[in-house]
Amino acid sequence: MIHPTRRTATDADFTRRRFAQLAVLGIAAGAAPIAASTPASASASAPASASTPAPASASVSTPSASASAGPPSASRPHYDRARRLAGDDPVLRALVTALTPGSDLPDLPAPAPVKLFDNLVLLSAGWVSAMAVLTDDGIVLIDALTSPADADNIIVPGLRAVGADPAAIKHVVLTHGHSDHFGGAQTLADRYGARVHMSPADWDLLARTRPADAPARDLDIADGEQLTLGGTTIELHHTPGHTPGTVSPVIPVRAGRRHHSAMLWGGLNPPSTVEELRTFLASVQAFRAVMRRSNVEVELSNHPNDYGLERVEQLRRQPPGAANPFLLGGPRTQRYMAVMDAMLRGRIADAEAPTARAVAAPHTCC
């Protein structure tokens, strides 16, 4: 539990390139447009003030995991349910796209650093992001991007750009043991004396695989652990599936006098085997209960698989006092997890199909 460029594209560059990449991604994955209406049950659970409408020029396609040309499959009802739950919500539709078999994570231009909330900073390389939680006694960094160069060129100057001192980094919490999340951690530990936290299972993963730029083993994250710094307490929950020891934080965030609870799902790209997929699904269900208990209203991601970078630009442009696009509200964050649940059930059905082929190489990122 815890409490946080390459080049900075212009707004016009970002919008034009992002929408072009989404269109290419939809075509490559066999995209089928989603229905333009949100189910009544979904509409009722998402207050209008919390909604994030997609720009008119940015139609987000949702790939259909069950192609219309083929015979019905056991997975189709689950994928169809996910699409119904998503309705016309661009955040949920992006999640469906990300979890559809065959979809790849696009390589996106990096946005300038931005405060998503008064005490939470996004530091992004475009296709992968870190979050810095600002406290009265220092900074908790969640993930450390891909390399020592990212630490030097994105994290350090990004914190300075928002008025924070990178020397105040006291803790680096790693959501999992893939190089796009731990790459800059040892650099920050060596330079600023920051402690590096990761789950025991993923420390073991690094010991087995010995990747470049892996941090030296430091502190283990226990399931449900609370990391407190400067009066801010971040909860860290084990959510295995993406890796054996993926961790998902619950983070208190502030906007003026308003306080909210945010979640960051630690690793979205599903594994390949039925057993691992079932573990992933169990993690979704357990973390959904944690979110309910913590009254989570804010959804965050460390990859652009949730319409997140589009929301960053919306936040940057909107007038003071407008609704924060990352503040979804409790019912909508719960529906986000319900969409993930349905998509994983579809992936399990696909993996259990007689024609399913085993994937030999494990996924190593995202």
Q: What is the count of DSSP helices, taking H or I runs of 4+ residues?
A: 11
Order of helices and strands: HEHEHHEEEEHEHHEHEEEEEHEHH
Biggest sheet statistics: 7 strands, mixed
Note the beta-strand portion.
15-25%
3D shape: globular
> First CA to last CA: what distance?
21 Å
Poorly predicted regions are 1-71
Strand order of the largest sheet: 3-4-5-6-7-8-9
List the helices and strands and how they pair.
Blueprint: H1 11-28, E1 31-32, H2 40-45, E2 62-63, H3 76-86, H4 90-99, E3 114-117, E4 120-124, E5 129-135, E6 138-142, H5 148-161, E7 169-173, H6 179-182, H7 185-192, E8 195-198, H8 200-209, E9 219-220, E10 225-229, E11 232-238, E12 247-255, E13 258-265, H9 274-293, E14 296-301, H10 308-317, H11 330-352
Parallel strand pairs: 6-7, 7-8, 8-9, 13-14
Antiparallel strand pairs: 1-2, 3-4, 4-5, 5-6, 10-11, 11-12, 12-13
How would you characterize this protein structure?
This protein has 366 residues and is α/β, with parallel strands linked by helices. The protein is built from eleven helices and 14 strands. It has helices at 11-28, 40-45, 76-86, 90-99, 148-161, 179-182, 185-192, 200-209, 274-293, 308-317, 330-352; strands spanning 31-32, 62-63, 114-117, 120-124, 129-135, 138-142, 169-173, 195-198, 219-220, 225-229, 232-238, 247-255, 258-265, 296-301. A seven-stranded mixed β-sheet has the order 3-4-5-6-7-8-9. It has a five-stranded mixed β-sheet with strand order 10-11-12-13-14. Strands 1-2 form a two-stranded antiparallel sheet. Helix 3 (76-86) runs antiparallel to helix 4. The radius of gyration is 19 Å and the shape is globular.
